[in-house]
Amino acid sequence: MNTIVPQARQWPIYLAEAHCELLRVLRTPAFLVPSLVFPLLSFLMFGVLLGHGQASRYLLASYTVFGAMAPGLFGFGVGLALDRERGLLTLKRALPAPPAAWLLARVAMAMLVAGTIAALLLALAWLFGKVALVPTQVIVLLALGMFAAVPFCAIGLLIGSVMPASGAPAVVNLLYLVMAVLSGLWMPLSMLPPVFSTLAPVWPAWHLGQLAQQAVGLPAHGAAWVHVAVVLAIAALCLWLAQRRLRRD
Amino acid sequence: MSLASAPALARLEGVHKSFGSRPALRGVDLAVEAGTAVALLGGNGAGKTTSISLLLGLLRPDRGQALLSGRPASDRRARQEVGVMLQATGLPDMLRVRELLELTRRYYPAPRSVADCVALAGLEDILHRRYGQLSGGQQRRVQFALAICGRPRLLFLDEPTTGLDIEARRSLWQAIGEMVGDGCGVLLTTHYLEEAEALANRVVVLQDGAVVACGGTEELRSRVARARVGCLTALAAADIAAWPGVQAVAADGARLDITVDAPEAIVARLLSADPTLSGLEVRRAGLAEAFLDLTQHKEAA
User: Fold this and answer.
1) Domain containing A152: what range?
2) B92 in contact with A, Cβ within 8 Å
3) pLDDT score at B287
4) CA–CA separation, A54 and A192 (whole Å)
5) A1 occurs within a structural domain
6) pTM higher than the cut 0.95
């Protein structure tokens, strides 16, 4: 006979985990402020003051994707490496917590920050940039901003599961900036040597950028479903590699 | 199933575990029953943390079984009855003690109230402070509170008082003692033998991944049937060392420290040989001597 062990109710755990993660994000201005300010200020500078018309529209779309990169990459890449080194991850695994709870909480917070950035960009574009979007375009771009955080969470998870806490920030920063530029998030790839346009499809940010351009009614490469499929495949691969690595710890 | 054959709260059965080619555990058996505290002793690399990791389901045994109440330790439901305090845990600095407590309580089906946890772990003054602002000792108290907040039937404490001052250590000992008194099983690793002596009913000594001794603390101490006799005497250390029943003599000025098998005969002989002898002191071998004796004996073999 096995004694029947009662289970704690599961959904309050997910909520509590998300609540703690939210508090953690709000109380870490060193993470939150640059994540918000960097894309917003860049958009004001290049999309509103220096750019007009189509340029504003282009940059609204691409900075929405850019804004979704930091929360996932830094939150997971740097945060996880730190938590792993400090033994928090081991403790979470030793506790009877559902293993996915903290992961989902963190992804949800990254999506929330990315969504906030997308909303603020849309507000700036509407107020100062004179970018006219129909309501469905606004909704699709907002949703895309939040969805875009997911693959970067997965990439961050992989970096955080492999790199030591001392090395993770450098790798994340490098990847963050290089991928943003080479995916055409800062300027159209047509302004760079053609080799970069050829290489662009290796970056998940490029696929998301194309989706964002389509969302605001600009011409873009490829079919939407292909971009979504590629991004999800990259995310799944990173997640699989990361959990393999984490299980070995 | 009768109560007598109820499975132990935690049990390792013939567990082997290697990391690469390096064996960490070689056929370890271990059991923790309700209402008892078992101390796992051993030097660095003896296999203490590996044993705990196996019972927490963090590692899987290569051979043998790691069981919690008869279930595999890797089953998350089995861990619903387990509280844990690991060696090094950096909890999120930005969260307040109360928030950490509220979160961890939710993992368990019938948790203690926050007020109970606060009282047991002595968190009255720090409940609303952020974890990152606490001293090392306060952080350790928070970790203890998280370990007991789920009303566990079994507690794993990996070096619970390392880095604590005497007062903090004693109050933690008291709290652990209360848990054991309430019927909780405790598996404890420690470097401090006095800690094992203060808390544990049973001691398991690990060396190079194998159990070299296990038993009650008393039993283990008595297995090393030694005592130490200290005194101030005019007798020469070298003469006493030649007496039968004397293991060793150490001199510190006029004070001698004599290790003996049975103290009674030696004390009588000392007093008749030197009537001016003073400062007589007889101490039974502590767990520390027993531990050294056991592990050194094994090394020599």
Assistant:
1) 11-248
2) yes
3) 67
4) 19
5) no
6) no
